Amino acid sequence: MTATPRVYSDSAKAKAEQHDIDYFSMDDEQTYGKEFYRLDFSEAVEKNLLSDYKVLVLAVNEDHISSAMQTQLAKQGELNLEDTAKIIGCYKGLKKEIENTEEAKEMDMSPMKRAVALTCSLQIGARLLFPARVLYHRDPTAPRDF
Fold first, then answer.
1. How close are the terminal C-alpha atoms of the chain, in Å?
2. Distance CA 74, CA 58 (A)
3. Residues 104 and 75 in one domain
4. In the structure, what pLDDT confidence band is assigned to residue 115 with cuts at 50, 70 and 90?
5. Domain membership flag for residue 55
6. Does one domain contain both 80 and 125?
7. How many domains would you assign to the chain?
8. DSSP result, the chain
């Protein structure tokens, strides 16, 4: 079951076969089975079935990562400074800890309660260990669990 089935056109399938490229199109009933239900996006909107969400694009200057965190990262070498900046940036974005700008005045400044992080593997996802890294960023004397 998927909200976004991947279906390739006949011309795309022919081109893939011509170049001996494997492809997986979800209209292949032998592999995926028969479609048992379809709900179009417009119908979902009409029935008020969709949840509002916001997309944040975050940018954090590495200079804003605490020097204690940078020192710890250099010693352990587990997570590079760029990845740590991304994690801290996500934390600040969720907390809505942003610079005082004209855009900020128009934003809902209530901290967000949930977020979804998409990574290309479980191993990379496990490296986030969000709470421990953020706690250490906020208080470098706090015990580390990462």
1. 36
2. 24
3. yes
4. low
5. no
6. yes
7. 2
8. --SS-----HHHHHHHHHTT-----TT-HHHH--------HHHHHHTT-PPP---------GGGS-HHHHHHHHHH-SS-HHHHHHHHHHHHHHHT-----HHHHTS--SPPS------SSHHHHHTT-HHHHHHHHH-TTSPP--
Q: At residue 87, what is the residue type? A: I
Owning domain of residue 128: 62-138
Q: Higher model confidence: residue 122 or residue 42?
A: 42
pLDDT reading at 34 higher than 80: yes
* Interval 47-77: pLDDT, tens: 988 877 766 666 556 666 666 666 665 665 5
> Which tokens hold the place of 59?
């940018």
Question: Which two tokens mark 96?
Answer: 């809505």
Domain assignment of residue 99, yes or no: yes
